[in-house]
Design brief:
Strand content of chain A: under 5%
Distance between the termini of chain A: 12 Å
CATH topology of chain A: F1FO ATP Synthase
Oligomer: heterodimer
CATH superfamily of chain A: F1F0 ATP synthase subunit C
Largest sheet of chain A: none
CATH class of chain A: Mainly Alpha
Number of helices of chain B: 7
Helix content of chain B: over 70%
Number of domains of chain B: 1
Shape of chain B: flat
Order of helices and strands of chain A: HHH
Number of helices of chain A: 3
Distance between the termini of chain B: 55 Å
Largest interface: A-B, 12 and 15 residues
Number of strands of chain B: 0
Number of strands of chain A: 0
Order of helices and strands of chain B: HHHHHHH
Number of domains of chain A: 1
Amino acid sequence: MGYFIALAIAAGLGLPIAVIGGGLGQGKAAAAALEGIARQPEASGKIQTAMIIALALIESLVIYSLLIFFLLSAKLPATADILKLISK
Amino acid sequence: MQEVSPWILLGMAGIVALALMIFAFAATGRLEKIPTTPLQGFAELVVSSLNNYVVGIVGPDGGKYTPFIGTLFVYILGMNLLGLIPGLHSPTSNLSITASVALVVFVYYNYVSIKVRGAKAWFMHLLGEPLWLCWLMFPIHVIGELARPLSLAIRLYGNIFGEETVMMVLAGMSLVIIPYFIAIPSQLLMMFFGVFTAFVQSLVFISLTAIYLGIGIADHEEH
């Protein structure tokens, strides 16, 4: 029973914790890109391309965590089985 | 969550490749210096912008690698966009297909690196700079090298599979709220984001490929 509790908590908390770091990183990248565009609007095409690539790379780390969530949530049992387990 | 058979996805990937080949043959059937047919004009637009992009990353003699990287871009873009058609699934939402593309890229950029700089330079790069630290640097470099195709495969797979799952959940939600007859396409906004994700993910894939190629063929000593 404790195994299922731990599994449910891990499946629920893993992704949001990864999103904290990902959000902070993407915010810094976007802020630097916007500052560069504001400083030199002629280079905005190159800066925009580099920003999109940087954002996608940072986001891929959060996507790895999403994959772990899918793997874990597939192993969670159905509610009926848990109720049977508790009532025994 | 229902699993789509990987063989059906493989067949769809083959159909994407076939469609690209048909487009290529149709666009270059009768080549003229100044394009008159709209197909040739569109193909020239795509090829020239990809060429500029690859040469910008790899260096002045990167034009040799534009065919490979350009084909990779259009192929992955086609596979990603296929999932947005109702009833079809993206081939890239399966880890086997993305892993095979990443494996091809891994073999290719190592092959190019060995061909351009020689096998000795490629191996010495793996050993690292101070030679007396090579026992420490070699495992670290090998793991780093192996992490490149792994991250390429998992990034593409995770993005496309996650986006498809979100669309499935959103589409199912409309059937729960108003049951039986009316099905609102509540995943429409997500599909716009899906088009954007398809472009960005294929762009990131080929950018990383071009960067690894550029690192592989760069001269470290001469300027």
